[in-house]
Structures are given as structure tokens and as C-alpha cells.
Amino acid sequence: MSTAVSLKLVKAKSKYDFDGLLRERGIELPPLSIDTLQVNVTKLCNQVCRHCHVDAGPQRKEMLSPEGVAKCLEILEKQPQIAKLDITGGAPELHPAFDAFVEKAVALGKHVMVRHNLTVQLDGNPQTKESKEYLPGFFARNRIEVISSLPYYQEYFTDAQRGSGVFKKSMEAMRRLNAEGYGVEGSGLQLNLVYNPVGPYLPAAQAGLEADYKRELKDKFGLVFNNLFTITNMPINRFKLHLDKSGQYEAYMEKLLAAFNPAAAGGVMCRSLISVGHDGRIYDCDFNQMLEMDAADANGRRLSIFDFEFERAIQRPIRFGDHCLGCTAGAGSSCGGATA
Amino acid sequence: MSSYYESEDLKKFGDIGQHAKKLADGFFKYYGDVTGTDGALTKREKALIALAVSHAQRCPYCIDAYTTQCLETGSNPEQMMEAVHVAAVMQAGITLVHSVQMQNHLKKMVL
Fold first, then answer.
1. Do A205 and B71 touch (CB under 8 A)?
2. How confident is the model at residue B111 (pLDDT cuts 50, 70, 90)?
3. Torsion of CA A93, A98, A101, A104, to 10 degrees
4. C-beta separation of A70 from A308 below 8 A
5. What is the pLDDT, as a whole number, of residue B7?
6. Could you say which of B44, B71, B77 has the minimum Cβ distance to residue A197?
7. Residue A136 phi, psi (nearest 5)
8. Each residue of A310-326: b (16+ CB within 10 Å) or e?
């Protein structure tokens, strides 16, 4: 299953050589742990967001196979160090085995997180038309952590990035999650929101924005949530296309480079998770996955869930590229928000 | 030169240190101390003030820079437009309040 690859031949040095920057600053970033298995189960999504690094949408067909789901569960069962399962997509709830995957991982005692786009509750499956209105109750019964993108607490920015009508639907979906106890103090049901800029600029400070979101969503819509995670837009795929078309790619990369923060570099998420693609291949993060930058062990052998060995994975050298500047700029960026 | 204002020239702001480095260094330190951190005012509030001043002074470099800075400190378009209206209404008010001077002089001129 594994194939030897020569990492040195993969890409030429660019103007934004991240490896070179780390060498110049004397920074080494080996993996620290693998406490999270992040699985991208499908690229199918009910939305077509303008910044999406997955290029997800209603026409996509990629799905993790039943064998792949079983293999992920086997890895979780055998590896107590991997305490968390982070299910993403696309809209991961559109995978036919999503419910069973969640329930079995919860039964294994794992902390399960779902990257839930809110609107899928109301839109359902764009291909099969299956309703997804049961999701808030399903999430609550399994006590999983829900992490939802909401680029701003107002309609203008949210709809500009995620599509017309998304903000209103998101408010309704949040109302249904709140009704199940999500985000409500004392319930233990975590609803965390994700902010990302609606263009080529860096996020504002996480704590201040979280306070704004909490005040505005409570005052205007009566809605509550737990934490806000600020995430920087990655200069890859759909967002990079926008940057190229609008002539802003160089300026954005210069901005990220100028804002390089060694403290944020130390906290990059690839040091504590591995990312699994719909075909079972393993990557250092979801961004490397979308760029098809396979993770490989110290001997250059690609990693896959189908021949997974923890020691090979933890000893791998993490692969970096220009886009990594997005995770190390300013206060840093990860799937859990700011890192510095 | 096609125009007196080229957006690329904003990157050359640091070049004001040519021929007067000590003065430029002093200016940039002052600039950073005032705008770069939260103080009695937050960075967001300072950015909104700077955006208003940028419009009042009609500086395209500053408008670009502080539109971005307002976004990066968490402001939204409503707040930014309101800041521009503050600048506009101040300028209108300053013009109008001078009509008192006109009235005063008018009274002297009319029997």
C-alpha cells in the first residue's frame, strides 16, 4: 500500500519558503503527539463557500469507504493516545455512515468533534434530498462537541463568504442547537463558533471578537455559544484562486510573511494531529491534504490508515509549504483557533 | 508617472528615513506607540479614528491602510461608514459654524 517518495523532489523553493524561514530562525517543529485523528469523510457539501480550502460543494462525490470508516475506528480503539476524533468535510453529516461513525467513536470513549456548517440542518442532502433536521438531537444524545463556522455576527460578511441566505439559516440552526442545550451554561454541551476573515486580511484578536459575538448574538437573536475560534484564510484552492484573480496573492503572502510569529509556529496543529483523507491517505493537516502533500515516515514511506503504525506516524517529519505561513501569522491559526 | 498616488507607493512609507533617518525613526516609534497597542483606547477605536481622519485629510494611502486595519481589529462596514460620517459632519459643522463670523460681519455692514 505504501509507496516510497522522495520529498526533496516534490517542489522547488518559492519566494515564501517556509522551511527556509524556520531554518533561518532556528525553529524546529517535530510532532509532539497525536492526540487527534481528524478525518475528512466527504467533499460533498450543501454550501459553496468562496474561501473553502476543500473546494467542497453539492456536486462532489468523494466519500470515505466503509472499510475506511472501520479502519479509523480500529485505530481509535487500538491507540489510547488518540483521545479525540475530529470529523470534517464538506459537510460531514452527509456521509452515509456519519451517524454510526459518531456513535461507535463515542462508545470507544473518544471525545468527538464535528465541523458542522449549521445550514445542513435546514438544507439537507443536496444529492439525495434526505432531511438533516434530526442533527441537533443526535448531537446532544451523543454529547459531541459542535464546531460551526460563522464568519461574522452580521448578515453582510456571512452571506458574502458563505452564500446568500446563509446567515438567517445559521441563526435558526443555532436556535435549534441552543434548544437542545448547546452553548447553554451548565449543560456541558459545547457549541464553538469559528470566525475567519472575509478576505485577504488577518483575524482580529480572538478574545475581543468573542465578546462582540456573544453580546451581539445574545442581544439581537437571543443565541448563546461557548468559545469563538479565529482562523486565518489559507492561500490555497478556492481562496487562492480569488487572490490570483483579484491580483492580491503577492500582497497577502507578504502580509502573512511579515506577521510570522515564532510563538504561533510552536503551536501549529500538525504537531498534535494527523489528518485522514477520503481515500485513507494520511496528511499532516487538512490543508496539506487538499494540496495532496502526503505525510511520509522517516524513511519516506507514505502513511495510510490501511497500514497504520503509531510509531511511524509520530516520528514522521512534518511537511511544510508556503501556505503554512497562514498558521503562523499574528496570533496563529488552527482548527482550535489562535495558538499564540 | 501616470498618477501622483500609486497604491504600490504605500510600501515605500519607510523610505521617508532617507536623508533624515533619526527623525523618521522617532516618528515611526511614536506612530507605533500610539496606534499599535491597546491603551486608554483600544486598537479598534484608534483604527476607526484614523479612518475618519484619513477621509477628512483625503489620503488614499491612509484610507486603504485603515480600511484593512479596521477589518483586522474587528470592525464592520456599518461602524466604518459611521466613522466616515463623523468626519463628514465635523467638516460640514466646521464650515457652517463659520457662518457665525459671517453673521457678525454682516451685522456691522448692514444699517
1. no
2. confident
3. 90
4. no
5. 86
6. B71
7. -55, -45
8. eebbeebeebbbbbbbb
Window 15-34 of A, Cβ < 8 Å to B: none
Whether A203 contacts A209, CB under 8 Å: yes
Structure ipTM: 0.82
Q: Verify whether the Cβ–Cβ distance A212 to B68 is below 8 Å.
A: no
Q: CB distance B76–A157 less than 8 Å? A: yes
A:B CB pairs within 8 Å: 27
pLDDT of residue A10: 52
Q: How far apart, in whole angstroms, are the C-alpha atoms of residue A124 and residue A131? A: 5
Give the cell for residue A173.
440552526
At A1 the pLDDT is 44
Q: What is the pLDDT of residues B10-47, one digit of tens each?
A: 889 999 999 999 999 999 999 999 999 999 999 999 99
Residues in chain A predicted with pLDDT less than 70, given as ranges, are: 1-12
Cite the beta strand spans of chain A per DSSP E. Answer: 36-40, 84-88, 111-115, 145-149, 191-195, 228-230, 273-276, 282-283
According to DSSP, residue A57 is labeled B
pTM for this model (two decimals): 0.90
C-alpha cell at A94: 452527509
Nearest chain A CA: its distance from B86 CA (Å)? 22
**Partners of A304 in the β-ladder:** A281
CA distance B57 to chain A (A): 24
Q: Is B74 in Cβ contact with A204 (below 8 Å)? A: yes
Give, rounded to a whole angstrom, the gap between the first and last alpha carbons of chain B.
56
Instruction: Look at residue A14 in the predicted model and tell me its pLDDT.
Output: 82
Residues of B with CB under 8 A from a CB of A: 42, 44, 68, 71-74, 76-78
Judge whether A75 and A35 are in contact, CB under 8 Å.
no
- Strand, helix or coil for residue A157: helix
Residue of chain A whose alpha carbon sits nearest to that of B67: A201
* Spatial CB neighbours of B38, under 8 Å, sequence gap ≥ 6: none
What letter represents residue B59's amino acid?
Answer: C
B-chain CB neighbours of A202 within 8 Å are 72
A194: how many CB neighbours lie within 10 A of its CB?
19
How far is the first Cα of chain A from the last one, in angstroms, to the nearest whole number?
A: 38
Cell of A183: 452553548
In this structure, are residues B74 and A209 in contact, taking their beta carbons and an 8 Å threshold? yes
Query: Mutating which of B48, B72, B73, B79 best tests the A interface, going by the most A Cβ atoms within 10 A?
Result: B72
Kindly state the percentage of chain A with pLDDT values over 90.
95
Instruction: Say what the pLDDT of residue B6 is.
Output: 87
